[in-house]
Amino acid sequence: MDSSNLPNTFESLGIVMEDGKPKFRLNEPAFSTVNIPLSSNLECDDETSFVVLGQSSLDFINNASLIDYQQIQEKSMAVDYKSIISTLSHEEIESKVAELLQENVKLKEILLQNNRSMKGQFNKLMSWQEELMKVHESHKHKFSETRNMIRLLQEENMELKTKLTSTESMMNTQSSSEQNSKNSYRLESARDLNAEFMIKHVEDELENTSDVNMKQLLELNKRQDRDLHYRQEIISSLKAQLQTFIENSFEPIKLQMNDVNTQNNKNRQQFYDNFLHYNEKLSSVVKCYAAQTSRFTNIQDCLKHCIDVIKTIDINSSSEVQEKSIQTLENCRKQLINEQLQNISERQNLIMAQNQFQKIFSDYNSALHELELLREENGKPIEKLDILEQEREELMEKMKMINDEKQQLNSAKEKLIAEQISFEQQQAGLEEAKASLNSQSMLYETEMKTLQDNMKVMEKRHDNMLQLSTKLKEVLQEKNIELDGIKARLAIAKNDAETITILKQQLDLYKSDFEEEQKAKQQLINEREFLTDQLGKLRDHNQKLLQRINGPNPTSVSQEESNEHLADAFCNSCGLYKMPGQWHGPGFCQPVD
């Protein structure tokens, strides 16, 4: 590409040009990969495309990223980008711009994929929230049912107590009449004691079960409230992460490590070690994501098991079943607590990995800054040597130019003498050309006059043709009128079918008569040819006889007269032999006088 087209290409890309060089605005926020989600650099499915972090961890990450961003911006302000761009060639600048455009397209695609996955996860969370609300409503309904059942049991307990008091009063009134039957009274009293003991035992069990059920329901409500609050926090953090992800879509790091093994620089080796550590952290993040997916499935199974246990709880069930259900719920709670602790530890690992990434980014930027400074310092003496060599080469070239100019001046003198001679010759040739041009101009004028005359003739012809065209148009209109009349006649003739059949029959008759006449005419022609042949033979024979009579040299007059007589004997129109005073031919030839 030409250098004149480079400013246009940079301006079309939105880059400001100054003195023929692209101007980068250093006060604008520079791109960084600190705020990019780690899922953009990993091949993961929809369930592991994001990580939910708490508000404190997000604040810590944002503060750390702002500090690193300020450090990077301070270092970037110290770099002279004009000197870097001036050292690059036009082809390198074009290749860099093309690479940046390709990376921008790839980043847009990755951003779209991440947005889609985040939307899918957000929809899943919303569906989970709806399901949790439904479960909460069902638990409330069951809690109200259990309260009603407890109230009914308490009422039954009061009825039993009233019945016991009434039976005791009845037994006291009947004690005087039943003194004789002490044994029976003792038995009845023992039975009453047993009944009271059983009633008290039943009441204690009912109170214990009601208290346990109430406690369980209260704990379940508290857990549900905590889960709802936790889900709402997750949704709000996801929304904030999605907003920050859309606003801070930065470019990922691409490290060229082609010459790491060949170079022995300590800084390069340290940077390579940091890069390996970065890859290890990435692999640990991948493992954390895989473990997170398995934990999500475990949590779902545990929640499902809890729901099944809650559904199978019956108030009238035995204490063993209730204890088992309570035990399973406690196990599920412990499992959920363990999962939460593991999530917290993994979040800490992720925060550590992110801090390591930030350190790597800052090390990379500082190394680049140092390399640029070293390049500038090393380039100064080399530039001086290059300038001296260029000046020496320029002096040598000037000496060569002076010698060449001397030789050129000597050759120019000889050329001027030769050119003077050729100029005189050219002047004589130009005079001759002038005379020829004058004659050609005269011829041109005569040709112009003839062309003008031809133009006038052509204009007259054009006018005549226009008149003819108008006349032909009028004739064509008349012919069209006649054609319309013929069409009308044709339409009338089509209606006369009988006349057409009669005319066809007449035409057939005429055709047969014509064919017979043609045959007769052909026969007559054949007879005429035969007779002419016979006459010719007779003439030849008569001529031979005349030659014998008149001698070997007959006169030419007799031959001419005989030829004229023969020519007058045949008709010119039909070719038949003419008889004097009679019609000859097929009826159109005149009789001979």
UniProtKB/TrEMBL annotation:
The keyword Coiled coil applies. It comes from Microctonus hyperodae. One of its GO terms (molecular function) is K63-linked polyubiquitin modification-dependent protein binding. Pfam families: CC2-LZ. The lineage of its organism: Eukaryota, Metazoa, Ecdysozoa, Arthropoda, Hexapoda. This is NF-kappa-B essential modulator NEMO CC2-LZ domain-containing protein. GO terms for cellular component: cytoplasm; nucleus. Residues 385-548 form a coiled coil. GO terms for biological process: regulation of canonical NF-kappaB signal transduction. Residues 453-545 form the NF-kappa-B essential modulator NEMO CC2-LZ domain. The keyword Endoplasmic reticulum does not apply.
